[in-house]
Amino acid sequence: MPRASVREQIVDAAFEQFHRHGYNACGVKLITDSAGVPKGSFYNHFESKEALALVVMDRYGETRHLEKLQTPKTAPLTRLRHHFDALAQDIVDFGYERGCVYGNFSTEAADHIPAIREGVKTAFDLWGNAIAAVIREAQDAGDVTNTQSPETLARFLLNSWEGAIVGERAAKDGSSFAAFFTVAFEVVLH
Amino acid sequence: MPRASVREQIVDAAFEQFHRHGYNACGVKLITDSAGVPKGSFYNHFESKEALALVVMDRYGETRHLEKLQTPKTAPLTRLRHHFDALAQDIVDFGYERGCVYGNFSTEAADHIPAIREGVKTAFDLWGNAIAAVIREAQDAGDVTNTQSPETLARFLLNSWEGAIVGERAAKDGSSFAAFFTVAFEVVLH
Fold first, then answer.
1. One domain for residues B101 and B38
2. B127: domain range?
3. Taking a contact as any Cβ pair under 8 Å apart, which residues of chain B between 128 and 167 contact chain A?
């Protein structure tokens, strides 16, 4: 098996370290040390920590279980449920730590770094649109009688999910995830 | 007017700087520089940055408009609406920046600093209990027919609010707050 390129080693390490420590507490040296490459090699591959963070956000997007929203022959609300179940399981597997890279970057870096803010906004928009499409299907099928627009409901649910993560990082007891699943699926998507 | 004590100057500066920069990007020197006091004076008053952060969280709690939840002669849902309206106005006044100190600390520091995690958990519990009490009143008055427990609804709404802030820091267009108010008050608290 060919050895991963230095660039790939840096991206893999950054994915792990940004997720674990957040944006501000994760410096280039932590990333290159974790990748096992010389710090000097970093700037051969990336212009800045910020540029690497954008690559990590794209990579993170590929792990957000969006494919579960499009499983064939599955009812829309079941797909939505499987999507959030998978997101929840990822967080539980990390002992309620690390959170969501998008939410972390929004909280830590969006105020000060325009490219990060734009990256998070784009990620949330794509994710929100994917959720809205499923909610529209559920409304068309009569599974959701709530007549609020799919876009509003999707934005609300996406944000509520991000907030449930914020709650769990403090409480670590599953209560915020439980409240999310109960209210999202039994009340909001009624 | 007596000059504020050095301790007070440090707490005031820390309140501002923690809110503006978050926990990790705000060091002791930034705080003492902002307070206009020598860095060396810090440790006469606080054991650590962490200890100061706990004081700031208490101070922040006093600004969270909890009194609006208890305005006399006002319907429960109106009080709840005024509470979130005031929280939203604070964020809009900062141009959708800075976020919520609790959410910021939960995201940035809860994983690594047990006392911060415990502080955020306590703050969320107190806030959630205050919201739950109002929802219980609204249910008893027949203003909310949703039969989910007040505790579950309160936890969900609190988290959804925190998530709406995460969304606004990326989008800065009011869409997440609008979705929150619409779905929270027209759907969840139906």
1. no
2. 64-188
3. 146, 148, 152-153, 155-156, 158-164, 166-167
